Structures are given as C-alpha cells and as structure tokens.
Amino acid sequence: MIVSEDCRAPEASADALGPFTAHRRMLFDVAYRMLGSVVDAEDVLQDAWLNWDRADRSDVLNPRAYLVRTVTNLSLNRLTSARATRETYIGPWLPEPLLTEAPPAVPDGAERVELAETVSTAMLVVLESLSPLERAVFVLREVFGYSYAELAGVLDRGEGTVRQIGHRARAHVQDRRPRFATEPEQRGEATRRFLAACAGGDLNAVMELLAPEVTAWSDGGGKVTAARRPLHGADHVARWLLGMLAKPALRAVTLESARVNGEESVVFVHGGVACAALTYDLDAVDGRVVNLRLQVNPEKVAGLAGRGAGGVVPFAASAM
C-alpha cells in the first residue's frame, strides 16, 4: 500500500486511513487510466493521501466522492504538464505496463472483454490522443459509470458543458477504438506459439504469427537503445525481434507469459525479475499480430515490479 509509516503524517488517524484504504484500488485505477503511468499514478495517490490526511473531514459526507475528485484533479494537473514533456520524448511513447490479475469469472464473455479493454495498452494509446479534460470525463463516465451530474461536481463545470465534452470524447474514442481479438483462449494460443517461435529463433515461424501489415513500436525513452520509429511489415518486424533476442546482452533473458494490462502478453525476465513487456493486438479474423509494442524504458517498467522477488532491473544500454 502506498501509505507507509515513513510517509504518513504523525497525526494520521484511523478515521483518515480507513476510507483511503477502502477506496485505494479504485483511486489507483482512475489515476492510471488518466495518466498511463504506474509511477505517476502512485505519486498522485501519495499526494491525495496527504491532502486527505490534512483535510477537515468533519464536513465530508462522501469520502469516496471527495477522494475521486482529489485524484482526478491531481491527475489533470500532472497530465497537462506531462503532455508538454512528451513533445520532446525520444522515440515512440508507450504507456507503462501494468501486471494485472485475471478478471473474475462472469457469465457474459463480452463483459470480460470490455473489462480488459479499458486498461489495455491499445486503449491507453487511444486515450493519449484526448485532451486532459476529455480523458477525465471519458474515464469516469465510460469506465466507472459516473453520471454527468456527478462529473459536473468533480470537475467544477456545468452539466451541459461536461455532457458536450463527454460526447466529443466518446465519438473520438469510438472512431479509434481497438477492434481486435481479445478472447483469452485465442490470446493464450498466440502467446504460446510466439514464445515457441522466439525460443527456437525460427524466422518463418515468427513471420507466420505476424500480419503482413504488422507495425511494431519500441519505447526506450532514450535510456536504452530502441527503434526510434515504428517498424512495418512482417519480415522487417520478425528480423528485428529475433535480432534483438540474439544479442549477447539478452542471452540470460527468458520470455514468459503474463497478464499485462488485462491481456495475456509476454514479459522479459532476467534473474527472476521482469525487465520489459511485449504487448500486442490480434486480428479478429485470423488471430495474427497486427500491432506489437515493446516497453524497455527502465523508468517505465515499475508496473512489472510484482513479478519476481527482486523488483525491476533495466536492460543494459547495449541490449537493444
């Protein structure tokens, strides 16, 4: 939990800690979908805790609403400054990968798919194209079910204004919404075949898994060597991928299946510690990979820290 003994104010009391703990999971989910960053989401929760712990809570009738409002506004401030920083980002920008648990079993398979999609890498990339305010309205409305009246209170704007923002954001996302195969069984089979092909260094086998028009992005953020432009085409992407895995610096790295951002994906593991994530989108018709995203920026793999006992280790600078 983010609230630890050394960062908690001395006067922190159970009446402050209890509500914050009860809603922490939801607050993190809001911040992460707003920011696409595990580190930034945790920082927002830390600031929200300090705000909550110091606040006069005697007039707070709904702690959950108060905390969501705080987290949303802190996220908006951080997202506005982050967008300026990303204009000078080196190479493609990708969200930070987040290890996620399998969704609970529900009768409606479509509901499972929808739950996974809201945090998928593909969806986070789409959300990145929204303005900060559009993103806040979309996340709270479409993912967490807030009414426009509730959103007006959270954002200090008129309900009509918020409704217009919501309609604009929803139309934007619908035009760009990921429409890929996300059934767990299909992704599981694709992952198994991908791991086997990479382990064998079989170029033809890897190419068979890739759509002819496949595109690959790699995010090194200037911290490690990575492709600074998207790669296109099955042959180009397959050769790049196998060439990367053949580098001496990666001989001790193994590839394993893991649920990343709600979908079965691949993580790179070194010494029992996850150090990179490979997420992908599958064509809904033939199940081949149409988009492939590799996150290797050592500053953006904090969401993988739950895998392995030692935390996160970065690739060596020459690894990519």
Give the key terms.
11 helices; alpha+beta; disordered N terminus; 6 strands; disordered C terminus; 320 residues
Walk me through what this model shows.
By secondary structure, this protein is α+β, with helices and mostly antiparallel strands. Helix content is 48%, strand content 14%. The chain contains eleven helices and six strands. A six-stranded mixed sheet has the order 2-1-6-5-4-3. α9 packs antiparallel against α10. The longest helix is centred in the first third of the chain and has 24 residues. The chain is globular, with a radius of gyration of 21 Å.
Briefly, what is this?
The protein is an alpha+beta fold. It has helices spanning 14-35, 38-54, 63-86, 109-117, 121-127, 132-143, 148-155, 159-176, 184-200, 203-209, 234-245; strands at residues 210-219, 231-232, 253-260, 263-270, 273-282, 289-295.
What layout of secondary structure does this protein have?
Layout: H1 14-35, H2 38-54, H3 63-86, H4 109-117, H5 121-127, H6 132-143, H7 148-155, H8 159-176, H9 184-200, H10 203-209, E1 210-219, E2 231-232, H11 234-245, E3 253-260, E4 263-270, E5 273-282, E6 289-295
Helix pairs in contact: 1-2, 1-3, 2-3, 6-8, 7-8, 9-10, 10-11
